[in-house]
Amino acid sequence: MSVPLFPVMAPASPLAAPITVLMWVTFGLGLAVFLTVVASIFLFVRRYRHRGAEGEPPQVFGNAPEELIWMGAATLVLVFLFAFSVRVAAQSSPPTDAGTPEITVTARQWFWQASYPGGAVSANEIHIPTGRRVLLSLESGDVIHDFWAYRLGRKLDVIPGQHNRLWLQASVPGVYQGACAEYCGTQHAWMRFVVLAQTPAEYQAWLTRTARPAAAPTPDTQAGAQLYARLGCPVCHAMSQPNASGKVGPDLTHFGSRQLIAGGVLSNTPEHLTRWLNDPDQVKPGTRMPKYPLNATQVASLTRYLEGLK
Length: 310
Ligand code: CUA
Fold this sequence. Notes:
Elements: H1 17-48, H2 64-92, E1 103-108, E2 111-115, E3 121-123, E4 125-129, E5 134-140, E6 145-148, E7 156-158, E8 164-168, E9 174-180, E10 192-198, H3 200-211, H4 222-231, H5 233-236, E11 237-239, E12 244-247, E13 260-261, E14 266-267, H6 270-278, H7 280-283, H8 296-307
Parallel strand pairs: 1-5, 4-10
Antiparallel strand pairs: 1-2, 2-3, 5-8, 6-7, 6-9, 9-10, 11-12, 13-14
Helix pairs in contact: 1-2, 4-8, 6-8
Bound molecules: dinuclear copper ion.
Dinuclear copper ion is lined by residues 107, 110, 145, 180, 182-184, 188, 191.
């Protein structure tokens, strides 16, 4: 799928389209006012520049009809924009208190995690079915973040202690970029995610696949699995098997089937994972992922184990 030059202006959802129209209308009106003012300045400068020699011109104090006209015109523009904005807000943000949220999205410094009905969990990517509205519950594990999948809907703050709800909808299957839109610390800029919109059938299949527990280690990945436990990775990372409840880092149950790692900094390849494990802070300064003194063999076996978790 090709990515538009300005994704923000290329809505792919009935929830995002009205926002784009409002943006263009506001921009158009602003441009008209700007051009009128600039054109008037040039016109008046050109037309009356010779008057400098004639001394001070007559001083005018107040002109009721003219003042009413410019104030009235400005008021009309503002009232129109206000009414338009209210309408767009209603269209892009339908009531959220009716349904039960389908997907819970949790924001942490600095990644996104989503949990789905049936127990599936994903990080850095959020799967939704196409063709209908999906209600998200937005939770924060630490500070204030802001969820923004700009082609699929409005943005909404993610606030500790609150369960903000947001509708998301994708018209056609595809990969849609998203980002944190509220400064939340060193790696705010690298708190990206993608929304993977799938046909309802593909989405169901993905849910079922991803709800399964993590793959048991094979002879090939056994060493990596043991090292994973010995290093204490489960303290921070949840994984359905072996049982762990860590909440500092992303759930790793199906790590190998994900597209991105480290909050979207890198695509998920063995080479990138190796780089990440060797020195997380070099890839993403400020990350909570510690650097372990691992030799090349250990990094290789951890990589093999994690990438095998499909
Ligand atoms: Cu999270 Cu900015």
